[in-house]
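Question (not urgent): is this output format expected?
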Amino acid sequence: MADPRTKSLKTVDEWEHEADVVVVGYGGAGACAAIEASRAGARVLLLEATGGGGGSTALSGGHLYLGGGTRPQKAIGSDDSPEQMFRYLMAGGDGPDEHKARLYANESVSHFNWLVSLGVPFTDTIWEDRHTIQPTDACLIWSGNEKAYPFVESARPAPRGHKVAREGDAGIELWKHLSKAVEASETEILYDTAGRALVTNDSGRVVGVVARKEGKELFVKAHRGVILTSGGFIMNMKMLANHIPRLYARIDDIELHGNPKDDGSGIQMGAAAGGAAIRMSEMFLTTPWYPPSSFTFGIMVNIRGERFINEDCYHGRVSAGAFEQPEGKAYLIVDHQAFGFPESDTRLAATEESIPEMERALDMPTGNLMHTVMHYNEQASRGIDPLFRKQSAWLRPLEASPFAAIDCSVGSSPYYAFTLGGLRTAPGGQVLSEEGETIPGLFAAGANSSGITRSASTYCSGQSIGDATFFGRQAGSSAASSPPW
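Got this back:
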């Protein structure tokens, strides 16, 4: 049976719309694809399922993961280079696509300058404290694992989280400038128009899109290419159950982070045309209040009272580790020196005068937590952490009673998630098959494409928006230069 997300050209009697390049989805990736395709001389048509653009980009914190020696990095004296950024992206085990990572690192400064040329504002300042997002308009932040093991052994640390100049969340400020550039490009936009299927000819080349607007089916011809940029699949329960069952099993305990149109339709359309969907089991998962600086002196333990990660790494990496613990239970054990409530979302599980009392309060095996704390204190007093290699700056024995246990368990602490899997693409945005062959006329970027991050353990704040805007541009340029069919 033919996949309903692919239509044969032979079934098309009339094209209601046509353009050189058709972009499906008007978020950060779609906007940047449209800008570059238009600048390359292509006539561009954007199809957006909702009544306005922005997608998850406009809802985001406004971080872009950039480096290699950007203006703000130089202004604060940070010594970064494309090679160091590339090494960092490839570190931590299961690294990203090497060719994509190399291009992204090499062109990161140019991408920053491109954004500035659109009027996107960035200050030349840094927020040094550990935080999920700068509360001020400061640009730079340590938004990943740059200083933490094992990444620090592969690349020289540098702050690469660049937030658009706005207090607090700044995605809407970024979107303001991207959408303004789209409007200036003479790109045509059809709102309330959802892409539903791709049209292919006898050779398998993608030649158009079947869209739906006000209950009616429209055929949209693409002379040079179709670019899929319609978001991930975090809002599609069937896809979550199929691809990320461990997340679906805890769906009531986790906030799904995205916009209502993150339904996976673009990924499904591309796969139906022969594109390979990869890393579909991967997700980003975090508990957003962690880590405040003072709590970094504490230790993360599971229900057995055992440490499982270095507490100084990125909050997404810590959260991913906690999610995989028995019963999804994890606690941050701190002493009186570190104790405090920096965010209202923290959950206090227990306060006790001694570690044995804490064990009993948390229903841990007798002696386990005591052994963990004793070993940690012994090593921390020497300025080392041989088990997990937390930085010496965050090593301090836990000795000042009373002690507190902050509940970081799934279902107790607030967690949110979004998907990382998508279509396999070349650095230029061309969608690839399982065999690595290009699907003629088909491109993807943003959350429709599997980007530079493979898993939550290597993700950094800003990689989604950085990836979407950068590879959206690549897809736009590639589609515009493709030969017409």
